[in-house]
Amino acid sequence: MTGSIHSILKQQWGYDSFRPMQEEIIQSVLDGKDTLALLPTGGGKSVCFQVPALAMDGLCLVISPLIALMKDQVENLRKKNITAFAIYSGMSRKEVINTLKIAGNSNCKFLYVSPERLETNLFKEYLPSLHINLIAVDEAHCISQWGYDFRPPYLRIAALREELPNIPVLALTASATKEVQDDICEKLNFGKTHQRFQKSFERPNLSYSVFYVPSRINKVVEVLQNVPGTGIVYCKSRKRTQEVAEALRSYSINADYYHAGLRNDVRNEKQQAWINNKTRVMVCTNAFGMGIDKPDVRSVIHYDVPDCLENYYQEAGRAGRDEQKAYAVLLYEDNDLKELEEQVVIRFPGIENIRIVYQSLANYLQVPVNGGEDLFFDFDLNDFLKKFKLNIHTVVYSLKALEQEAFVSFSEQIFLPARVQFVCNKDYIKEIDTTQPHLTETIKGLLRSYEGIFDIASVISEKQLARFINEKEEQVIKNLQQLHQLGVINYQPQKDKPQLQFLQPRIKAEDLTINQQQYQKRKEVYAARVKAIINYVKETSLCRSKMIAEYFNDNSSKNCSICDNCLHQKRISLSTEEINTISGKIFSLITNGETEIKDLLTQLKGIHKEKVWKVLNHLVAEEKLVLDKKGNIGINKKAPNFRGH
Questions:
Q1: 444 lies in which domain range?
Q2: What global pTM score does this model have?
Q3: How far apart are CA 226 and CA 181, in angstroms?
């Protein structure tokens, strides 16, 4: 089998050998063991399930929350002539059935599925025909409510295991603390013989730095002018992405901005321009970067402090995947750290606030009690806030709590294609042909292009339909809208606006409850994450790479020697000769009386101040000097080895 996996790697990826730990993970999977693999961003996670799946008969079920990543991996596999499909939100029932049928009756090797699909009756119906040999769970930290990105649909994977009792599970993540690792294994019902692999979190080519700055934009410009090549600048707010991009362009830096509020096609266009090096710097929110494999990013700058080391490590780790020198820079002001501490209270609103938001959602979307289950609604957050005069933080984090308790799902990056179904009989269509002749070609185009459109809502493309009937797309959309108003069709236009979905029937707000014990634990875990990132920012002596590694339970890492703290320690490190030289100068400047520290430092201005302090602390510790509370220093005449310097 080992020879087989090497030949697959060479044939499909062109590599002669695996990266560190990949082969051990693959062998564990081939041995039928449940496996947890922690591989840093850019560490080659997909190879760990794609190679063993190709080495075995059957199909690998890949569970992923990222639609863009699913589509990208399916496309890449197909380029290698490997059959792969994906099922995700936005697909019609007919499309899902067709995909499941083809996956079960062909040589399909990979089926990518969003976690929400797992427990649908439709998926369960076709599950036995899929011949699954491996379940790969990507972004596995999402299954843990103690993790930084908990997603309740991931909990459904355990039920899937009951249907597939002897199929191994490979859980993959780039970042998880020890507590989250344990929780992943528990929630996925890992067997007693399961194995865990954790690649070192060291990135020897990536230099981490933190700067306290009065003017962030000037520092960003300075970094980008000194570090050539592609860059990413992460900001916390959408508005700021645009402002920073415009500021960079004023300095003749080719920059663009990106956030989840942009239209789907605009986001794709901007992303592609950056990948193809037409745009040098992308200024963005954290909506940008997931699933994008661009190895030659030379700098990642955080304009604002992220709320946890998990996010920071993932985002900073997008620099230098080609293993060439790269820079991760974090900027901050005092107010940033204060705001982070305040987030602990803001992010966990009380139950009464959550109920108010839930009732307001039902009123805004006009969802009756016991209604709304599984329905998607366009959700304009700003309009909602204005109409109900609610605080944005209260709403956003109440929505998060409602998501984690599986009441609703809110997605800013969902894409739902247009759908059409005929809802009238053929006699009425003939009548419309006579009374509204300008609609005839649109009707014919629909009937000829989409089989079964009379029986079930079919996904359509307005653009393709316009091309088929030789009409402008804008006119086709108007015709579809008119046919909808006339009761000929049910037309649901394409949606790439934020969507809110009720995951269960709407209940009365006063009946809404949450698990307070788990809610409080999540709050405590979040507070610990905030404390960790603040400690990282304020630390001035410990190696930053080592701090990150130890946070993720990797205690084998060494000082990186290239982060700002390591470089600073190098600058102020002292040889025995330097200690003796500086000691001699200190003693020559201190007479039998006392000298103020500030005067002493002024007289030794040719020597690095921190080196002087190091020697002073050493001499005080050795009891050769005495430091009083007023900041005066003098020779300790009571010292056993005093010789009257």
A1: 419-492
A2: 0.73
A3: 39
